[in-house]
């Protein structure tokens, strides 16, 4: 399938998409999908006036964040909920769950693509880890909380 067909399927039928998604086969295909979603988000960021630095920062943050999120999801699933899937299937989940990120640049509505991306991650984790919906939700929630605290600490924000 091409990017547009894959994107449409992820967005409209996530259960079926993740049920049919290969859990192995390398990172090239999901990384390319993630990179295209990141590029669309980066171009939107540029159009919103954030400049070239903002565009490049957005692209790099989304792609690097995909690897970090997949690693965090893998660790949380394996160590807290006895998940069996490794990094590759979890990276595939994160990469394809990034489909809504293409619209993250839209002012005031950015929260909708973010929430839908989390929903897609829950569906993907449910499938690849063979979890029930509760454990999948908790896995994504713990991952998100850990990454939030990590970012707050690294940036130096004070809560």
Tell me what the structure shows.
It is a single chain. Helices cover 77% and strands 0% of the residues. The protein has helices at 3-12, 14-20, 28-81, 87-97, 111-128, 133-155. Helix 1 crosses helix 2 and helix 3 (28-81) packs across helix 4 (87-97).
What's this model, at a glance?
The protein has 6 helices and no strands. The chain has 159 residues and is mostly helical.
Shape: globular
Q: How much helix is in the residues?
A: over 70%
What is the makeup of the main sheet? none
Q: Segments where pLDDT lies below 50 for 5+ residues?
A: none
Note the run of SSEs as H and E.
HHHHHH
How much of the polypeptide forms β-strand, as a percent range? under 5%
What is the β-strand count?
A: 0
Number of helices: 6
**Structural domains: how many:** 1
Structural class based on helices, strands and sheet pairing: mainly alpha
Gyration radius, rounded:
15 Å
How far is the first residue's CA from the last residue's CA?
45 Å
**Mean pLDDT over all positions:** 93
